[in-house]
Every structure is written in C-alpha cells, then in structure tokens.
C-alpha cells in the first residue's frame, strides 16, 4: 500500500509541473543581479514618477490591478524617487530578493526597497515588491 501511495503522489506532482512552470533564481553575483534588477527597478520608479502604468507594471508577473494598488500607496506615502543604492541580494529556491536603500520626495527617512524576481521561461519577472 505504501508503494502505491508513493507512486500516486509522484504522478500527481509530475502532472502539475507544466501547470506551474519552472522558476529559478536570477543569478549568483552582485554584478549579474544589478545588471538584471536595476533596469527593472528603474522602469518601476520612472513609471511611478511619470504616472506611466505600462512602464511601471511591464515586468510584473501578477495582475496589473494588484500592483496598481502598490503604485497608489507609494505615491501617497513616500512620493517619487530621488535616488537609490544597491545593497545586495538573497537567493531563495525559486526567486532572488534584491535590496536597495532609496530616497523619496515625501519622506526624509531612508526607504528599504525589496523586489523579488524570478526567471521563468527565459524572462525575468517581478513576483513581489515592498517599500519599507
């Protein structure tokens, strides 16, 4: 009975792989991560600054509506970006978390920018975005 149950679980797991796709980390060096993540962050921050929703959300994996809510929050709470500095990255199983220190127009405090990026089917996609 245990062998049959294991086979069923393995078959079910394999059958779901094409549905979920394969995701992987973005890279393993600061240079690689910066070369990939900085242009994505520039699009996001420039999109916020200019009100260009297409530019802001072009690299997002989730629905545009979900990230437009984040756009509204950022504009209301911290404003437009003035500068940012790359701090580093963390690799997880299927994503890379990239960290920056940012300066914005509506606050004198430093803002921690965290972006989770995943590589799926050869494309880099933002799967999470936080401004703290």
Defining key terms:
single chain, alpha+beta, 5-stranded antiparallel beta sheet, 5 strands, 132 residues, Nuclear Transport Factor 2, Chain: A
Main beta sheet, described? Answer: 5 strands, antiparallel
End-to-end separation in angstroms reads 51 Å
Number of domains: 1
Q: If you average the pLDDT, what whole number results?
A: 80
Helix content: 40-55%
Number of strands: 5
Low-confidence stretches: 1-20
Multimerization status:
single chain
The number of helices is 4
CA-atom Rg in angstroms: 18 Å
H/E series = HEHHHEEEE
Assign an overall shape: globular
Strand content: 25-35%
What class would the helix/strand composition place it in?
alpha+beta
Which second-level CATH architecture applies?
Roll
The CATH topology name reads Nuclear Transport Factor 2, Chain: A
The CATH class is identified as Alpha Beta
Describe it.
By secondary structure, this protein is α+β, with helices and mostly antiparallel strands. It has one domain: Nuclear Transport Factor 2, Chain: A, CATH 3.10.450. The chain is 45% helix and 31% strand. It is built from four helices and five strands. It has helices at 2-20, 30-50, 53-57, 64-77, and strands at 23-24, 81-91, 96-104, 111-120, 123-131. Strands 1, 2, 3, 4 and 5 form a five-stranded antiparallel β-sheet that branches. Strand 4 (111-120) and strand 5 form a beta hairpin. The longest helix is centred in the first third of the chain and has 21 residues, at 30-50. The protein is globular. The termini are far apart.
